[in-house]
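Tokens in:
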């Protein structure tokens, strides 16, 4: 097989890039090691910046997003006794849209055949070859048969554990990482949200988040030690903890219901600055991970795709390699800003093991300043809705 561009990974970043290239008449093949059902079974966040919704609109794939997405003009930071509303619409003139990452992925998958986007699922043992040359290629196994795809470029959109980043020689690697001593225990349930807008809560019992996927589906999280196991929690215990943290602050209180999913997600900040090596380019989670506190993961992946699609279109249409040469610098500028904001909110809203009274007073003082300062609220709102491309 032969194609100009091979994309490794059929998550939202890989599918977005595939659709962006096909919309410009550039052929590409997406290779995914898992099945379609497995891909759609991944439960992820869903606060979308305009960079992401604009890309879906540009592709003409935003019908469901516009019909079902929840437009959020603000969100809340909470202390034990105060709700601090960040009015992002009034402060920035913009808003975010709550629409699950799974639904974005579904929309992109459903449109693939009609748009001529080839996706090869269940591709095992994916390997990248000759990425330093002008003729890189990818091999994979399926149904006992090994297939080779020759290309001009390979794009790694295969997440933190995929083979793309690992194909880059160690001598060329520049990476930065911070692991946090806690995770988020989450529950998804078909119950109405406790509040019309998201609440990020800082309490003596630890951090908690009340969010929603729709008017009838809620997503809650609480901070737990990194060593905690989901098996240590039954649903009743988690609902009790959520009620303790949100009932005094929210409009409606926590409504309980059977869990559709419970899981614990560890938190880390990670940047792999070697986003290009030879004819291999990285985008999305293969190059960076952010704590979910800032709602930046999918949106940073979308901005990577925006920059990379522009660069590839310039190359194939005009032979212009400037965008490809500058891709990493351009993408990393926005990535580090997203990392900074996610780190800031994580540090502000969580309880860290080892922190004492001084650190707790600093958090309380910062939140009190945010509550009375329009300038601070504006800075938070600008980062939350997404900095300019």
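Residues out:
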């Amino acid at each position: 097989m032969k194609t100009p561009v091979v994309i490794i990974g059929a998550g939202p970043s890989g599918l977005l890039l595939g659709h962006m290239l096909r919309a410009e008449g550039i052929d590409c093949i997406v290779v995914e090691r898992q099945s379609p059902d497995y891909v759609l079974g991944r439960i992820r966040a869903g606060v979308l910046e305009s960079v992401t919704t604009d890309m879906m609109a540009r592709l003409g794939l935003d019908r469901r997003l516009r019909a079902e997405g929840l437009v959020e003009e603000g969100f809340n930071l909470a202390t034990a006794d105060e709700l601090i509303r960040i009015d992002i619409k009034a402060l920035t003139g913009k808003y975010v849209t709550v629409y699950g990452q799974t639904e974005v992925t579904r929309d992109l998958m459903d449109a693939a055949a009609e748009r001529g986007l080839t996706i090869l699922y269940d591709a095992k043992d994916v390997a990248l070859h000759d990425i330093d040359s002008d003729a890189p290629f990818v091999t994979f196994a399926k149904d006992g048969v090994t297939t080779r795809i020759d290309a001009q470029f390979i794009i790694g959109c295969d997440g933190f554990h995929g083979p793309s980043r690992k194909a880059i020689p160690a001598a060329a690697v520049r990476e930065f990482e911070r692991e946090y001593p806690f995770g988020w225990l989450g529950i998804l349930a078909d119950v109405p949200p406790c509040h019309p807008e998201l609440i990020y809560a800082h309490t003596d019992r630890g951090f908690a988040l009340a969010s929603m996927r729709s008017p009838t589906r809620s997503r809650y999280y609480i901070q737990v030690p990194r060593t905690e196991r989901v098996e240590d929690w039954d649903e009743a215990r988690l609902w009790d903890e959520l009620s303790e943290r949100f009932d005094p602050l929210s409009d409606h209180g926590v409504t309980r219901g059977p869990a559709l999913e419970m899981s614990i997600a560890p938190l880390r900040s990670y940047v792999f600055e070697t986003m290009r090596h030879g004819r291999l380019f990285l985008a999305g989670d293969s190059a960076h991970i952010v704590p979910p506190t800032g709602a930046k993961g999918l949106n940073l992946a979308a901005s990577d795709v925006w920059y990379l699609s522009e660069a590839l279109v310039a190359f194939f249409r005009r032979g212009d390699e400037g965008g490809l040469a500058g891709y990493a610098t351009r993408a990393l500028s926005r990535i580090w800003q997203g990392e900074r904001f996610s780190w800031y909110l994580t540090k502000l809203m969580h309880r860290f093991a080892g922190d004492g009274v001084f650190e707790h007073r600093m958090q309380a003082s910062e939140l009190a300043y945010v509550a009375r300062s329009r300038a601070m609220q504006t800075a938070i709102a600008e980062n939350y809705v997404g900095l300019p491309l």
